[in-house]
Prior knowledge:
CATH architecture of the largest domain: 3-Layer(aba) Sandwich
Largest sheet: 7 strands, mixed
Structural class: alpha/beta
Number of strands: 17
Helix content: 25-40%
Number of helices: 14
Distance between the termini: 32 Å
CATH class of the largest domain: Alpha Beta
CATH superfamily of the largest domain: Type I PLP-dependent aspartate aminotransferase-like (Major domain)
Number of domains: 2
Shape: globular
Strand content: 5-15%
Amino acid sequence: MRRTISYGRQTIDEDDIRAVISALRSDHLTQGPLCEEFEKAICGYTGARYAVACANGTAALHLACMAAGVGKGDSVITSPVTFLASANCAVYLGAAPLFADIDPLTFNISPDEVEKKLKCNSNVKAIIPVHFAGLPADMEAISKAARKRGIVIIEDACHALGALLRTDNGKWTRAGDCSHSDMTVFSFHPVKSITTGEGGAITTNDRKLYERLKTLRAHGVVKDPASFVNGTQAPWYYEMHSPGFNYRLSDVQCALGVSQMRKLDKFIERRRDLAALYSGLLSKYSFIKTQMVPDGRLSAFHLFPVRIPFRDMGVSKKEWFSLMDDLGIRLQVHYIPLHLQPFFQNEFGYRKGDFPAAEELYSEEVSLPIYPLLTDEEAGFITEAIISTIACAAASPKSIAREDRAGA
């Protein structure tokens, strides 16, 4: 019997399990040496000077915005095609999310749309470009627009650990090296490039930002006597100069992260092999469009998104999903555009129609299963199932009008 195939899945082996057991038997379950070891591994891989591990990707975004000084009266530009956290991190601090539409070919935030927002808004404090599905956004163009205005750049690379970007001089750099940004944020959720169960990290090349991030991660506690307001005190003494959070990552999770980092290149290689296989299998069907990967960028393929013109084909996307589910294939859609969420509409006045490229992508996008343990045979089965179920759904007498009214 064929196993259920989900859109994403963790890859855990005996080395990972032994690493976690060793941490459980150690003297430290949290605030121990493994956090620093994990951070060094992240720096060694990305090329960034500093890394701060934290509870999850959302916490990382929140900390990065706080360190950047985002606050009330500010705006933060990001993509409408992303998870809620990319905008919520600004809302947490009293700032307003300012969405810029996407490039319909790369599915990433459009630099031209970012430039339009910047020309019309003087209160932009930060830009959070999202590397959708693991494909780096056009960081050189976004950086150029931001730098001349003194705007902080926080890369949302939660999908993109292992992605590569070629610079003007031909050198390949890894996502997270912060060559085009002030900070880069990662997530280690089970479906990401590596996992710590839950977890996140921020990389930066700025020492002051690094120290600020570390303090904010741990309740805002200051232990360096040189920074004390009240002068040198007893060995147990500490101060809090501003509130922080308990956003630390445990040593147990960091043990898993250190073990996973050793296999990251192998994981990414397998994801790219699967992406190439999908692309080849789907190339026979011209109505299915894959994410364009521009020259000079290599995706980490956290997701494998495709566009299927359901409405043009008279196919109900909801019914088609159900047919795929019946075959044991659990797909996903990334994402419901943020400006269609009731909160952002009620609080910030966004409406349907504001970002047509994002909405058109939502009507067509489907994320196919992709993870290192997926077999070539399963990828072939999924491709065949896509075509057969589309044909079945197209022949169905059910109308797609109900789906249109529901906004799917």
